[in-house]
Design goal:
Chains A, B: It comes from Amycolatopsis orientalis (Nocardia orientalis). With 428 residues, chain A is α+β, with helices and mostly antiparallel strands. Chain A is built from 17 helices and 17 strands. In chain A, the strands form 3 sheets. In chain A, strands 1, 5, 6, 7, 8, 9, 10, 11 and 12 form a 9-stranded mixed beta sheet that branches. Chain A has a 5-stranded mixed beta sheet with strand order 14-13-15-16-17, with helices on both faces. In chain A, strands 2-4-3 form a 3-stranded antiparallel beta sheet. In chain A, helix 1 packs antiparallel against helix 5 (138-154). The mean pLDDT of chain A is 94.
Chain lengths: 428, 428
Amino acid sequence: MPEYLPTTPVKGTRDFLPAEMSVRTQVFGHLYDVLELRGFLRYDGPILEPAEIYERKSGQEIADQQLYTLTTKGGERLALRPEMTPSVARMIAGNAKSLQFPVRWYSHPNCHRYERPQRGRVREHWQINADIFGSDSANAEIEIFELVHDMMGALGATPDMFQVRANDRNLLSSALTDIVGVTPEQLPQVFTLVDRWEKSDRTKLSDTAAEAGLTDKQFEKLTEVLAAGTALLDELPEQVKENSNLVKVLGSGAADLIKFDPMIVRGLAYYTSTVFEVFDTSPENRRALFGGGRYSDLASLFTSQQIPGIGFGMGDVTLIDFLDTHELTPKPRSEADVVVIPVVEELTGAAREVAGRLRKAGLRTSTPIELRKLGKELTRADKAGARAVVIVGQEDWDAGNVTVRSLATREQRTVTVDEAVSTVTSLL
Amino acid sequence: MPEYLPTTPVKGTRDFLPAEMSVRTQVFGHLYDVLELRGFLRYDGPILEPAEIYERKSGQEIADQQLYTLTTKGGERLALRPEMTPSVARMIAGNAKSLQFPVRWYSHPNCHRYERPQRGRVREHWQINADIFGSDSANAEIEIFELVHDMMGALGATPDMFQVRANDRNLLSSALTDIVGVTPEQLPQVFTLVDRWEKSDRTKLSDTAAEAGLTDKQFEKLTEVLAAGTALLDELPEQVKENSNLVKVLGSGAADLIKFDPMIVRGLAYYTSTVFEVFDTSPENRRALFGGGRYSDLASLFTSQQIPGIGFGMGDVTLIDFLDTHELTPKPRSEADVVVIPVVEELTGAAREVAGRLRKAGLRTSTPIELRKLGKELTRADKAGARAVVIVGQEDWDAGNVTVRSLATREQRTVTVDEAVSTVTSLL
């Protein structure tokens, strides 16, 4: 007896059967629409990139543990992209001369990270990556925050369901040094501590703070700073605030798009000022749905030209968890609107002809490949989600007619072939 | 000075900048429409699969030379899919109990093969994969051939631009054994010879035939058989023809969808009867655009259940070459329909408000992120492909007005904010 291979997908990856794929397609279709309405242009790049670009730029955790690497027969050491940003930085750098900056670009890559699979985390996920390149202006921040709201809105989310929590790393640095008294050497460790703040318990945080060299009093002060919200801004030097795009956003008509939160820092190494994360307001879902930020110098691996950018990656796993939580997940699309059923095999060609007319009118139409008894075909059409069938019988056909039947009301009518399209349409 | 990394994509892969991506998106969008209209359901699977499934099923060339493999930290030996069929066979086998066979499925994967890059061949390409599973009926063949014609038609191709050349490997086997006198042992070698027939010169073919043990007379006979076209059918045993779906198609109303051609065999190991290739009729483009066929037992790696299928993969590279040759390639989409320009920075919020209204009406609308002088913004809007701009000036805005300007005619009008949408629409 032969030994069969497993039919499950490789650990941490997913099959998308038609029902799941239809959900994914609809969700991302709504997001494409919003992006296109705002003038974002879609691009794409290869899944394989030189491993080096991630090892140099994506932070230690990705480079050391999460990268899928391979060496080709030609000796190139490549990696499956764990994120899109280095690829798009490469493309922007390579085409900088012909681009009209600032540009708005988006893509829909799948990304691979070798992580322990768990709720919200898989090894291959799909994401929307949206960025603005070539501008230092706070208008870029506003555009990105508006985009986030429009995207969430297009998925049916109302403003009470999510919150955009934003920070500026430079504001936090200033607060940490000027108010908490953190030294420049301690800063990286304290940033990591802040990043874990909401995921760890107080004892653990306090221990980690002590390891970083903070006194108990400094730890208390840090706790206050992180909880201060907008009031923290009053305590920061004017000069620091003047340089902050986030402060500009908070002073603009777009302020209500975000909530200032000193606790947001994000893990990825390359963010330089604005950072944000979008949270589900439902207590069932504590993790950030997605996030992003501003990087002043991402293209520096590829060019001496400084190209600032701001953007985010929005992954399908946490997003669909969010939609499920709020009962916003779209229903899978049916297989067809209408099925054309020949009563006998000899009428298959006739059924195909009728199906062709229905399709020309934009109706999603299928015909049986293996013909069963009419009753069985009606059941199959119903299971396929069709709302009507067209039955092609010999006598009808000889007289130039077909029978149109609604699967909802079981009402049926014999009409001429020419009338079939309008009759079906009236039933849908 | 730092050493910069190359900005070109990894050899054999491609970046899709927005202009190229827009072409790809439009082309595949048309193909999705056709597939959905015919009741094909889209699915997707992981890029990484166990290397074993290709090594066992995809033919020697792929397994030995073209596979990108890697070993994860967990010790799994994986491969980047070189084709979609083994993945879909795995999914079909794993879900056979819950599926209503026959099923029509399609996907849009990217596939990786380590080949020498050349015209029509890259190392990462995108394809449409369409299959019908669970039917032995010739109606499945007809459905697939109709689908091919509809897909080509949706891209603007007229029937004179391409030809579907189809064969049945069993008919050819019969002709080779019964007419040419090929022994069962010689068959595989002769199939390979036939596959190369159009790509090699006559001396080379004759030498290869001699190596396979064919006499000069047999080689002459083989040449006749391959050139015979439909006339060959008269010389084949009735029993063989009765078992051939292709012969059924040729005897049906769908016969004109294909041209019978004994020379078509296709390389992939798993085809068992019907095979076809779609050719450009233009002499500039001699290679097959794409092709497919019927496999009786593809799921056998995963299940004892026999699940026949028929399908094809249609790759983006040869397809876009075809469209270019016939001047059918769609134009890249513009960045936006309309740009809303505030005359001064202080009116940015007002411009965003107007832009929001235009987007609600379905108009693709952008606003400047970094404001330049009005003349420059008009030039930028023109370059971005916009057909109109809305200018927001202080006095106008204070009076509840904006100025709408056509970029084609330079005609402009001052209207109320409420009238802006209809005025812009009338200009597009």
